[in-house]
Amino acid sequence: MAKSTSSASNTQVTFNFKNGTVRGDFDGGDISRNAGVVLLRQLDDRRHYVKRIAACISEWRKGKTQYEIEDLVRMDVYMKACGYPDGNDANSLRNDPAFKIAASPNWSDLPGQSSGSRLHNNVDADSIQRMQNLLPKQYLARFKRPPKSILLNMDSTCDPVFGSQQLSFYNKFYHEYCYTHLYLLADDGFPLGGVLRAGNAGAGEGGLAMLANVVSELRAKRKKMRIEYRADSAFQHFHTFDWCEQNRVTYFIGVAPNNVLTTLTKDLVLRAHEQYVALYGEPSPLHGKTWNQNEERIRFSTNEEGRQQELFERDQRIRIYGEVQYAAASWSRKRRVIVRVDYSAEGEDIRYVVTNSETGTAKHIYENKYCKRARCEMHIKELKSQRVDRLSSPEWLPNQFKLLMHLFAYAMQIELRATLPPYERHLSTETLRVRFLNIAGQVQLGVRVSRIRWSSSHPNQLQIRCLIDRLQVVA
Predict the structure, then answer these.
(1) Residue 154 within a domain
(2) Tell me, what DSSP letter sits at residue 8?
(3) In the chain, what percentage of residues exceed pLDDT 70?
(4) Core-most of 73, 168, 393, 444, by most CB within 10 Å?
(5) What is the tally of structural domains in the chain?
(6) Are strands 335-344 and 317-326 parallel, antiparallel or unpaired?
């Protein structure tokens, strides 16, 4: 049982455990759990994220101010990158010694929640557009020379709301009141665009406008850049196809099945059925209660009987590829449509992908070009892990601003991860925060020189040292 004793100078707590006595007090000095935030500042000085974001925002204040826009932006971006999405967190972090070193120009107290809220609520639409245009520019700034090619991925996601927020509507697909986010990401996850849409927006609404804006920004630096774009069937639209063909963008976009496509691919399905019968015999699909009983048997089975992880070894499936020329009524011409047919005991499963690529086999395009867009969903999952869906302002424009600030914070995390040694670059951004940003350290603030003392027993000391060396060499 713990007992407390007090003295004139401090409060001491004693724990009497079976293996000994432990005494604790609050005399450890200034210790921060965010002592890795200085890595963000080092990266920021190299890429000038905060300076460029602040330059996008119009000044709305008059007279003398306590904080510059750059100070407000730095506090907001660093908070989000360290896993603090709520503006109220600024009230505790404004006195955090590590944050003072990284985000304060003179190591004084940082902006609190009220200052951050005024920033969010006074950003105008022109500032938002300039910030949108900055994302692809920051991507290109990562390279000494603009890359020759880039692969773009587009997808949307749901952001549930709690209250009568502006432009929040009931979405029949997600079955809740929400916003819908639309993202355009590079293949490594670097965000090139992000739009907060109304809850009742169409699945692909705003996709072409975002794509055109990003392509324009990329081509401004390299006119002959080869650009590939992929998305699921929610973004199939004849305007998108025509625009991509006119602007030298190679697309790989899913197509929803219809009666015409089913008729065009019936020979492929018949061939898959014949191959299945030749190998496994006539299919005997399980339905209803029989299917449920079979699933329960598999999931309750022991290792000797063949557990769930060996299911792929018993999966009896035939896969074949093909392609057809197809034009919907709204299309300007016939286009190449890749067909993938999987045939199993449950019957056929067909996927269609339309492309303007004239090279590559059907298998190569489907497996290596289209299917790998699933990485985009993993990047969106990482964004959600840092609470990008915590947009609680009552109006739309402040929430759009918060979304963009999350994207800039995520971009900094991706750059930080890319600086790690190759064997560490598979880490999720959530793990990156835990290992390198949210680490404890004793901070000593000085007039000319300050000092951070990290834990002597930190398990990732070598990686942190390597990361610091790499950032300082490239800076």
Answers:
(1) no
(2) S
(3) 94
(4) 73
(5) 1
(6) antiparallel
Amino acid in the structure at residue 240: T
Longest dimension (CA), the chain: 89
Provide the token pair at 278: 């030749």
* pLDDT tens column, 401-443: 999 999 999 999 999 999 888 888 888 989 999 999 998 888 8
Question: Which amino acid would we find at residue 290?
Answer: T
| Inter-helix orientation angle 49-56/37-47, to 10° | 70
Please tell me the distance from the alpha carbon of residue 79 to that of residue 90, in angstroms, as a whole number.
8
* pLDDT greater at residue 20 or residue 474: 20
* Distance in angstroms (rounded) separating the CA atoms of residues 95 and 62: 27
Q: Give the range of the structural domain holding residue 73, as residue numbers without chain letter.
A: 31-122+397-474
Residue 255 forms beta bridges with which residues?
352
User: Is residue 190 situated within a structural domain?
Assistant: no
Q: What is the pLDDT of residue 82?
A: 92
Pairing of strands 441-444, 317-326: unpaired
From residue 284, alpha-carbon distances to 49, 141, 291, 307, 320 in Å are 59, 57, 11, 22, 20
Q: Which residue has the tokens 């056929």?
A: 348
For residue 444, give the nearest of 459, 434, 454 by alpha carbon.
454
Instruction: Report DSSP letters for 416-452, one per residue.
Output: HHHHS-GGGTT--HHHHIIIIIS--EEEE--SS--EE
Question: Can you give the pLDDT at residue 309?
Answer: 53
| Stretch among 59-68, 230-239, 449-458 having the lowest mean pLDDT | 449-458
Among candidates 110, 107, 109, 27, which has minimal Cα distance to 73? Answer: 110
Q: What is the pLDDT of residue 426?
A: 87
Residue 179 structure tokens: 């916003």
What is the amino acid identity at position 398? P
**The pLDDT of residue 408:** 96
In a domain, 95, yes or no: yes
Q: How far apart are CA 49 and CA 43, in angstroms?
A: 9
pLDDT of residue 5: 45
Residue 29 and residue 264: Cα distance in Å, rounded? 74
Determine, yes or no, domain membership for 114: yes
pLDDT at 188 over 50: yes
Q: How far apart are CA 75 and CA 91, in angstroms?
A: 11
User: 3-class DSSP state for residue 22?
Assistant: strand
Lowest mean per-residue pLDDT among 110-124, 235-249, 380-394, 442-456: 442-456
